[in-house]
Amino acid sequence: MRNDDGQVIRLEDYRPTDFAVHHVDLVFRLGSETTEIEARLTLERRAGTDPAAPLVLDGDDLTLTGVWLGDEALAPPRFDATPDRLTLRELPAAGRFQVTIATRLDPAGNTQLMGLYRSGGVWCTQCEAEGFRRITYFLDRPDVLATYRVRVEADRAAAPVLLSNGNPQDAGDLGGGRHFAVWDDPHPKPSYLFALVAGDLDVLTDRFVTASGRDVALAIYTETGLSARAAYAMDALKRSMRWDEARFGREYDLDIFNIVAISDFNMGAMENKGLNVFNHKYVLLDPDTATDGDYAGVETVIAHEYFHNWTGNRITCRDWFQLCLKEGLTVYRDQEFSADERSAAVKRIASVHGLKAQQFPEDQGPLQHPVRPTRYREINNFYTATVYEKGAELVRMIATILGAERFRAGMDLYFARHDGDAATMEDFLACFEEAGGIDLSQFALWYHQAGTPTLTVRERFEDGRLTLGLEQDLQRGAAGTGTQPMHIPVRFGLVSEGGADLVAEPAAGGAEIDGDVIHLTTPSAEIVFEGLAERPLVSVLRGFSAPVTLRFEQRQEDRLRLARLDPDAFSRWRALTDLVGEHLRNASIARAAGESAAFDARIVDAIIASAEDERLEPALRAQMIAMPGEAEIARLVGQNVDPEAVHEAREAALTTLARRGEATFARVHEAPAATGPFSPDAAAVGRRALRNALLLPLSIASGSPDLAHAAFAASDNMTDRLAALTLLAHRFATEARTRSALDAFFERYERDALVIDKWFTLQATAPVPEAVEAAERLIGHPLFQLANPNRARAVIGGLATGNQRAFNRADGAGYRWVADQLVALDRLNPQTAARLATAFRSWRSFEPRRQSLAMEALRSLAARPDLSRDLADIVERTLA
Ligand code: PHE
Ligand code: ZN
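A: This is the predicted complex of the input protein with zinc ion.
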């Protein structure tokens, strides 16, 4: 299957197509065996191009059944076709003309889940990035914008619901049990936003009236019997629509907005114009089957896809190198939405936590790449944390640098100037330069230079003068991008003994200060604050104002005080987490050398104190007492990591915390929980998070699973039930009672795919070496399905990315097992296999023995002749 000619796509080779596609008329005849497709393209040569140039259309694995120019059927040599390309010659030199292409597909045999495929009984499409070419031959690239009209024909019994982009135009009966529907999308769009869904689906409907009075029919389609579970998604959709009007002045632009929940889906969801297609995980919820984390995920993803309507669809990307233009910006927008809907500090902590867990390791390992890359072999492999999450951080920095008002002006200009365009990252930045009256050429380096910069801070206090020294350093990484000094916005505060922000005037210094932001634009700078009566506590990088690694050798007592009283809640969390992280890092290194390191009682007491700090909202207290995970600790150790030592160090710290904090934790845990029915609101979520976070230290302190069993038995929602069951499976795995709890859970939810995914995951992630054998047993379970991406991720991903100890087992069994599963999965679904393979990205940070075992597993993969281009690309870059 390896269609790899080793070809690298380069940004500098970009040039527009010779032909424009003005309009696409599609007919789909869906059948149980094959599907026939006719695509009539209205084309025109672009002015100034070679009038004799052939039209070369992209295809992928296609079967051609006919080609027409106008009404004339063509035969070779007027065209030649391979499964991957259709070339047409002797086309009109000027004016519009029509080419019709007929193809035949087998959607049921499409296990890649790209193009047209069947999920359960449902026909659905996925076209981003290059899936449309698996439906018909096309100029399948984002800068070719056309209007679409789509006619779908199918058996009414198999597919009573027929959907595509835009507005419904016509529908009717065809006799013989067949029927049809016609959809018209008046907004020119790139092919990657095309979508079609047909099947027997239930629907939840609602309506939304936009600010200017457009009445929009909303519908969420689900598998039969499940539409009630779409209620929260519908609520999130309406809130997203309102928020985008209020915050960015963006209204919806069609009469109808459809969402479909699909159970076989490679990613989270897809923003197809007027017809978003979702992994059902991000639509279907109720308290009995979904956790609070699932609710947050649904809200975020629903908002994200909706926001794409402006940032992605109305303004799309010129080429795939510009992916961050739509993704980084849209993630920024969904983060802001969640921050406004819930607690901003809790949301920011969660985002930074995710950034450090996903993007930092990517940026510091072999898969490192700039936010705006300049080359790729397989675009599917660039839907990364760097493009999405770091991309969002760059937009956030622009907002920090410009301030809220000028940022909004820049966004307004971007929407006004580029509506209907396929734009570039440079176009985007130019709008902020113009609206903000600022030169962003240095800032643009953030898009081009890969790697996480280190920001080193030093402080000196003498005679009422505080001197802050700032220094930036960008190690040259694997991506080989430059190391020029960047523009780093450093939000800061000077905090008094009593916990108030001091107002101090900076004297002349090397960096510019604007309000509470220091603009570091040089390799190093000093800032002096004068006339300070007392030595202030220095709080830097508030709100994580730049995606950097902070090195600040601040006195421990200052950090402990900041953890208690920094007026900025995010910084309080960071002060404490950094202290804990440093201890765990040092303790892991000590253990690997056969020594031990004591957990400073003052840090332990600070964690315990935060658990009952009534000034903090419960969600924040839960975040303060959560220990960094093993992978996070490994990242802090950085090199020569011994995962067993990391595990033991973390266990030891947990035990110390549990014993010392037991009385406090029990007191907080026993405080009466709020009464009343389940609610997914932020306050209720926070209370559950805190209680569930306390279960772990309390169970460790007592050495007994009784509390978790009681919580499991008493739980009236999935959040509490899963928290208790996970604790039992991870810490009391060998007990018969744990097995009964797992079995009871399984029996209760056997027919509920999304819950059964959780059941698989919690077993694959048990932090014990034997989890490898357990995972092997799980893939033999009757409900395991390799072809279903959620299920494959639950077990293979659970072990590879959610179980550091087992994946990095000393004998290499974890690496070998994952490599074997990747080979099997790659035959069905290269995109999902490649994504799971990124679990190997940190292999060089482990101790030498594990490094060589991981390398062996990677090499055995690389040596296979039948690897997909997706998987080969990841494996080869990881080894490079
Ligand atoms: N564009 C989708 C999103 O960010 C993600 C996606 C990419 C989905 C590729 C499918 C395929 O919302
Ligand atoms: Zn997106």
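The first helix runs from residue 231 to 248. The radius of gyration is 28 Å.
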